[in-house]
């Protein structure tokens, strides 16, 4: 039950996208999201979708991973589209009377629904491109580097990254432990599969209490072990993998930006 | 290499309601000198103070009285902290709770990264140390996918990358299965014999202590026995008094002696026992 939790659902590979510097990828993904909400013309949307398709091809990742990423979002996407379909005011195409209310589908509503559906699907796909091609560790590393200029205004960039690394490291350990505790409590008669929601929530208490106690104990021991290996925060620290922005990164970023500008130009037409 | 002078340690225990302060004394006047290149085992039952002693060699705990020196550096002086911790590396009991990174290689790199070592040099040390503990092929694995023994070997490698002269292991095999124990023990022996590393092994397994060249038995915060393994384990009755077992073969020899057979009382290994028994059979046949 808990073993399948993987943050970021990284798919290892050796494609161009996999080898890019994480900093560049994070910044370009942010640019992608901003772009997505600036688009208006159908032509620009088509071009943007084509560019996204090209990126998916470039990542060499099976399309089914992207669909898997979309699945949990499907409800929200459909829900947003439906809400927009019925509740956008404008020129009515069809209307129905339900009790005292008049529900109508408007021309603007159809347009809005299509736009929202399209945007959300692209949003999930575009961000999946980042998480599918970047390992959680590279991602944390990139975040640390991007935040590091903010250390001047006392943002603890290294500490944030270190916490994320440790969290990633302990997910499987704690998941395994949860499994064990759950089995132990089931053996003692705890009911985790009751249909009654309140009963099920109550059953979580004997699961969470030991889990928290053990997590605190682990944290304490880990801190000692880190101390013993001369951990002293971020200053003076060197890295095994120094990430450098190479020629490939610059080339990729240039092409990316060029495509973005072209799409924006289409948008203005 | 490691030296304690009249080391005392107590926990301050304050009753929050009455404000009474009680002291729980764990170590009473330990005097020790551990030589460079030696392999010392520290034995004692639970609560004897053996882990507390180990934590003093790494300045994780500081003495309440007396002094601890690591290669001449006083552990109470904060300026020596990193020098001490990178000279005397420490490995802990629970392999799951001492690994920081999500990838084996990054784990091994953690300590030299903290010390600000050059990336190229870190690379060299990581490769070398993973090789020493035999984990090179797992360099890119996640620790959660390794067995207990493998995790503990990664923990050892992650200490070795500081290039310490001494390694202190606080019950490193207590949570492992027999196969994992054997892997870890083989690694420790290799470090001592081939690399000349000073090893202090805190343990409650007698057969592990038998492979050391010096055994120190701690009871109630004091050193009660301190000798070569043969001489320590020969005192079967004394050890039993202290709540410790002897290795099985030593116990067998002891029982046979008790029944009037002419066997030496300091047998430690199965091979040695077999040899002496064969000699005895030979004599009896004549």
Provide the helix percentage of chain A: 55-70%
Tell me the Rg of chain A in angstroms.
24 Å
Indicate the CATH architecture of the largest domain in chain B: 3-Layer(aba) Sandwich
CATH class (first level) name of the largest domain in chain B = Alpha Beta
Please give a structural write-up.
The complex is a heterodimer of chains A (269) and B (286). With 269 residues, chain A is mainly α. Chain A has helices spanning 16-19, 22-38, 42-59, 63-70, 74-87, 107-133, 136-147, 157-187, 197-228, 247-268, and strands spanning 92-98, 101-106. Chain A has a domain at 8-134 and 242-269. Chain A has a two-stranded antiparallel ribbon with strand order 1-2. In chain A, strand 1 and strand 2 form a beta hairpin. The longest helix of chain A has 32 residues, at 197-228. Chain A starts with 15 loop residues before the first helix and ends with a helix. By secondary structure, chain B is α/β, with parallel strands linked by helices. Chain B has 2 domains: 2-229, 3-Layer(aba) Sandwich (Rossmann fold), CATH 3.40.50.300; 247-286, no CATH class. Chain B has a 6-stranded mixed β-sheet with strand order 6-7-8-3-9-10, with helices on both faces. Chain B has a 4-stranded antiparallel β-sheet with strand order 2-1-4-5, covered by helices on one side. The mean pLDDT of chain B is 88. Chains A and B meet through helix 8 and helix 9 of A and helix 2, helix 3 and helix 4 of B.
SSE arrangement:
The complex is a heterodimer of chains A (269) and B (286).
Chain A: H1 16-19, H2 22-38, H3 42-59, H4 63-70, H5 74-87, E1 92-98, E2 101-106, H6 107-133, H7 136-147, H8 157-187, H9 197-228, H10 247-268
Antiparallel strand pairs in A: 1-2
Chain B: E1 2-14, E2 21-34, E3 39-43, H1 50-56, E4 65-70, E5 73-74, H2 81-87, E6 88-91, H3 104-114, H4 119-132, H5 148-160, E7 166-170, H6 178-195, E8 198-203, H7 206-209, E9 214-219, E10 222-227, H8 229-233, H9 236-241, H10 248-258, H11 270-285
Parallel strand pairs in B: 3-8, 3-9, 6-7, 7-8
Antiparallel strand pairs in B: 1-2, 1-4, 4-5, 9-10
């Amino acid at each position: 039950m808990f073993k399948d939790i993987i943050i970021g659902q990284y798919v290892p590979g050796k494609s161009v996208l996999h080898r890019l510097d994480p900093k560049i990828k994070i910044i370009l993904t942010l640019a992608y999201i901003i772009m997505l909400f600036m688009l208006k013309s159908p032509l620009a949307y088509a071009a943007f979708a084509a560019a996204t398709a090209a990126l998916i091809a470039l990542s060499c990742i099976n399309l089914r991973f992207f669909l898997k990423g979309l699945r949990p979002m499907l409800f929200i996407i459909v829900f947003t589209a439906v809400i927009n379909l019925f509740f956008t005011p404008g020129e009515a195409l069809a209307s129905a009377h339900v009790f005292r209310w008049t529900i109508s589908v408007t021309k603007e509503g159809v347009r809005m629904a299509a736009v929202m559906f399209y945007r959300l699907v692209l949003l999930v796909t575009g961000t999946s491109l980042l998480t599918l091609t970047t390992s959680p560790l590279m991602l944390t590393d990139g975040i640390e580097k991007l935040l590091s200029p903010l250390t001047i205004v006392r943002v603890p960039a290294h500490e944030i990254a270190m916490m994320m690394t440790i969290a990633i490291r302990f997910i499987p350990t704690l998941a395994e432990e949860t499994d064990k505790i759950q089995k132990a409590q089931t053996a003692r008669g705890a009911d985790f599969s009751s249909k009654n929601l309140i009963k099920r929530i109550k059953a979580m208490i004997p699961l969470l209490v030991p889990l928290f106690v053990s997590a605190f104990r682990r944290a304490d021991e880990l801190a000692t072990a880190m101390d013993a290996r001369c951990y002293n925060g971020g200053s003076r620290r060197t890295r095994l993998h120094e990430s450098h922005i190479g020629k490939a990164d610059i080339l990729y970023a240039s092409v990316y930006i060029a495509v973005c500008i072209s799409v924006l130009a289409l948008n203005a037409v | 290499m490691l030296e304690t002078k009249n080391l005392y340690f107590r926990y301050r225990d304050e009753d929050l309601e009455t404000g009474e302060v009680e002291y729980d004394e764990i170590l009473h006047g330990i005097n020790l000198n551990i030589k460079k290149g030696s392999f010392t085992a520290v034995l004692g039952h639970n609560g004897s103070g053996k882990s507390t002693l180990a934590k003093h060699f790494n300045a994780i705990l500081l003495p309440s009285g007396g002094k601890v020196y690591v290669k001449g550096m006083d552990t109470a002086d904060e300026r020596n902290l990193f020098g001490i911790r990178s000279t005397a590396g420490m490995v802990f009991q629970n392999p799951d709770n001492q690994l920081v990174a999500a990838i084996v290689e990054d784990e091994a790199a953690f300590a030299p990264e903290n010390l600000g070592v050059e990336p190229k040099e870190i690379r060299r040390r990581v490769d070398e140390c993973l090789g020493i503990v035999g984990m090179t092929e797992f360099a890119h694995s996640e620790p959660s996918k390794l067995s207990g023994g493998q995790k503990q070997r990664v923990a050892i490698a992650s200490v070795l990358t500081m290039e310490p002269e001494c390694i202190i292991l606080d019950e490193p095999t207590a949570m492992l299965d027999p196969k994992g124990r054997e892997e870890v023990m083989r690694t420790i022996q290799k470090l001592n014999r081939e690399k000349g590393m000073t090893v202090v092994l805190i343990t409650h397994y007698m057969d592990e202590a038998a492979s050391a060249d010096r055994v120190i038995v701690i009871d109630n915060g004091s050193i009660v026995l301190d000798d070569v393994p043969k001489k320590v384990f020969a005192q079967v009755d004394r050890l039993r008094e202290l709540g410790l077992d002897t290795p099985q073969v030593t116990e067998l020899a002891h029982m046979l002696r008790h029944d009037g057979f002419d066997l030496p009382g300091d047998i430690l290994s199965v091979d040695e026992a077999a040899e002496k028994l064969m000699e005895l059979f030979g004599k009896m046949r004549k």
